[in-house]
Design brief:
With 363 residues, this protein is an alpha/beta fold. It folds into two domains: 7-101 and 109-242, Type I PLP-dependent aspartate aminotransferase-like (Major domain) (Aspartate Aminotransferase, domain 2, 3-Layer(aba) Sandwich); 245-362, Aspartate Aminotransferase, domain 1 (Alpha-Beta Complex). The chain is 38% helix and 14% strand. The protein contains eleven helices and 13 strands. A seven-stranded mixed sheet has the order 1-9-8-5-4-2-3, sandwiched between helices. Strands 6-7 form a two-stranded antiparallel ribbon. Strands 10-11 form a two-stranded antiparallel sheet. A hairpin with a 2-residue loop joins strand 6 (164-165) and strand 7. Helix 3 packs across helix 6. The structure holds pyridoxal-5'-phosphate. Pyridoxal-5'-phosphate binds at residues 58-60, 84-85, 87-88, 130, 156, 158-159, 180, 182, 192, 194.
Length: 363
Amino acid sequence: MIPMVDLKAEMNILRKPILKAINEVLESGQYILGSKGEELEKQIASYVNSTFAIGVGNGTDALYLALKALNIGQGDEVITTPFTFFATGEVISQVGAKPVFVDIEEDSYNIDPRKIREKITSKTKAIIVVHLFGRAAKMDEIQEIANEFDLKIIEDACQAIGSEYKGRRVGALGDIGCLSFFPSKNLGAYGDGGMVVTNDRKLYQKLLSLRNHGSRQKYIHTCIGINSRLDEIQAAILLLKLKHLDVFLHNRKEVAKRYTNELANWLKTPAAIESREHTFHQYCIEIDERDELAEHLKAEGISSAVYYPIPLHLQEAFYELDYKEGDFPITEQVATRILALPICPFLTLENQNKIIASIKKFI
Ligand SMILES: *Cc1c(COP(=O)(O)O)cnc(C)c1O
């Protein structure tokens, strides 16, 4: 079976230095909040061009802590997209605020700025922008709305480290950016991990405290926080992988280019959108006979996946928000037609040809 992402292939290439890095941490005796984590925070800040970075336990916590740092909670509303991983909406409810969804753009699958204004109320405090699948969202238009209504912008860049919007890397474009190092993400650890980035010193100091029980000085607690820290072993692995990230992203883009060259005449492939780069955490096509194609591929030994089959507004967990089918027509239509093909820096030419031939055969 050709997998969606070949994490073993990557590990086999990096095995030696990774074992060495892990061993260094084991010998150091320092496993949480140590020098590796600090070094990674420096390097990620420099990579996304933010002033500060704070290592946390995972991408979901990064989003949760971002909302907390901005004092968002009970009685507040936060605007976001219904076409994303569940965590984006989940954290809004976790802090006690209300998720308010806005439909997506057909070509990018990102939140449609033209539809945001009509959802803003006196309770709206922030917009969580998701750079879905690695494609940068329409930041200038969103920033303009945020300025007009005095809203904060949180970037969910969990799928998009290294993606550029008008030549600037995502994550540091809004007030707070959130990254995930879940193993299958474009920069993945061998366990959970995440990072919050910001240019604001006050938010930085608050986040340092929030991720560690509201404490920056041992046994002195200035607010209620959580326990969400990036461990030293994951930080050491990520430091090593970060060196390869640009090459890995380049390889993803090359794989995507071949898919598009071969398939664009037959089905909907990711559009080229000026100044909104795509780093292809997922390469998604659209086709009416989506389920049949997935079955066909499976029978030929090829994995595929649906991101996301049920939009957030139709999830049982958000039942109380009172949304119904038909509320977000573009999201709902895309959810029935979208299919992600295998993509990773280690997809061989041979396997890619096999996937392309199999899709053409189906059509
Ligand atoms: C992966 C992901 C998250 C959550 O990250 P975890 O590290 O798995 O907690 C949040 N939002 C999006 C869009 C993601 O893809």
